Amino acid sequence: MTDPLARLQELQAGDLPVHGGRTLAYVYDGGDAEVDRIGREAVAAYAGSNALDPTAFPSLLTMENELVGFACSLLDAPDGAVGTVTSGGTESVLLAVQGARDARPDVREPSMVIPSTAHAAFHKAAHYFGVRAVVVPVGPDFRADAAAMAAAIDDTTVLVVASAPSYAHGVVDPVTEVAAAAAEAGIRCHVDACIGGWVLPYAARLGRDVPAWTFAVEGVTSISVDTHKYAYAPKGTSLLLHRSSALRHPQLFASADWPGYTMLNQTMQSTRSGGPIAGTWAVVSAIGDAGYLRLAGEVFEAVDRIVELVSATPALRLVVPPDSTLVALTTDGSCDPFTLTDELVSRGWYVQPQLAYADQPASVHLSVSAATLRHLPDFATALADSVAAARAAGPVSVDEGVVSFIEALDPAALGDDDFDGLLAASGLVGAGADGSLDLPTRMAPVNAMLDVASPPMREALLVAFLDRLSRPVRPATEVPA
Ligand SMILES: Cc1ncc(COP(=O)(O)O)c(C=O)c1O
Question: Where N6-(pyridoxal phosphate)lysine occurs along the chain (predicted)?
Fold first, then answer.
């Protein structure tokens, strides 16, 4: 038998690095190897524990309550506020929407008013829970347009949403105005601080200019904050806080309508691994308040220096000056943003392409970590070299035939044959006889192709792509019957 751990190491070598501060999406790195070790050991120690039953695993209940208590202090939560540890930002958002819907059984066709920059998790919640998303375009500064959102509230609205900050642009919505409009209409207001919840409070303490967005703002009824982002905890936890237990109540679920144990849950999961909870608790305890203040100083110093670098590079510009730790930059006509992304990736800096949307151009997203700071001289060189290489490579054009092929497809009815036809026409992603896909190493031509497609077509193509990726790999030798 091959050593499974050796095999894991071999497999993991093909993944993005989780540590090192150069992966500027998906992962968040505090840069302290000892804290990471503590987190990993806590995850391992609790991997088999089950938070399903707090009476059976009371240590997990203690950890959850302490984590929520820490967050209550950060987020100016009043006495009586409560919270839940969920599996991630999307689950926190889903539960905020589900709770808002179920608190209003009187509304037959519920809706929520969200800014166009709200995270896609709200669209997922709309899809899952039948809550129509009323999407209000943001203003020219990429922040929610509070007056337009207030005007969009009607008898069906059960929730109003603001972000602190938005993922795509890293700016904080005018929460005071949005929450006031919600409160005036007697409607819940959720602040999605999945990104900013653990870092913006420290930014304010460092004297940075952060607009009000916490429970200190009247009318804010719930806040989501991801510990697996800027609390630098292992993956698998977020917190959803409510201003009162009455507001959380519709989120709690019990079913005694079967012959087994009474199912009793705060989250969408029932069995919940203790690993992520213990890992998060251990990391938060190890870093502590003073540690997070220092890490916030580091991440914001890194952000400021990246902003300076971008501003000093003629081919680049910021989409908008960031309020938080996320930077969106775009390019002038001399440099293709998707090629720039590939060039940075090839130099060991993972940045994330963002497709053009509405009147917003394609851009490059950077989620900056505290650990990024110490590598900035290298980033500066990589950025300059990548810009030069992208300029030399010239624009990425999408073949006219491929554009027409995509335009002729119906996203609502995209089938396997259409997808295969597109793969063949574009020649971008090779497919084996068994339907398996060979991933391209350079993504710019793929992104350029997606960029010309409408959002529904992008969704349909990527769903088809995911379906193809997700296929069973059967064991090489038959398992004896
Ligand atoms: C603002 C915001 N909300 C929600 C989410 C979803 O979080 P997750 O990926 O943990 O489900 C994200 C993820 O980046 C986010 O930035």
Answer: 229
CA distance 317 to 314: 8
Q: Which residues pair with 192 in a beta bridge?
A: 163, 224
Q: What share of the chain is helix, strand, coil (3-state, %, to 5)?
A: 45, 15, 40
Encoded amino acid at 56, one letter? A
Token pair 């940045």: residue: 351
- Those residues with Cβ within 8 angstroms of residue 181's Cβ, 6 or more apart along the chain or in another chain: 146, 149, 150, 153, 160
Is 198 in contact with 225 (CB distance < 8 Å)?
A: yes
Tens digit of each residue's pLDDT (9 = 90 or more) over 450-464? 999 999 999 999 999
Mutate to test the pocket of ligand 1, among 143, 161, 226 (most ligand atoms within 8 A of CB): 226
Window from 42-46, 151-155, 326-330, 397-401 with minimum mean pLDDT = 397-401
Nearest to 446 by CA among 302, 345, 366: 345
Closest protein CA for atom 4 of ligand 1: 89
CATH no., domain 33-285: 3.40.640.10
Q: In sequence order, which residues have a C-beta less than 8 Å from that of residue 390 and are 6 or more positions away? A: 315, 331, 335, 336, 339, 340, 343
List the domain boundaries for the chain.
33-285, 400-469
Q: Furthest-apart CA pair in the chain: how many Å?
A: 69
Rounded to 5°, the CA angle 389-169-230 comes to 100
| Residues in a beta bridge with 397 | none
Q: For residue 136, what are the β-bridge partners? A: 115
* Ligand 1 atom with the shortest distance to the CA of 193: 1
- Is residue 480 over pLDDT 70? no
Residues with CB under 6 A from ligand 1: 88-90, 93, 119, 121, 163, 167, 192, 194-195, 226, 238
Encode burial over 246-269: b for 16+ CB neighbours within 10 A, e otherwise: ebbebbeeeeeeeeeeeeebbbbe
Q: How far is the CA of 92 from the centre of ligand 1 (A)?
A: 9
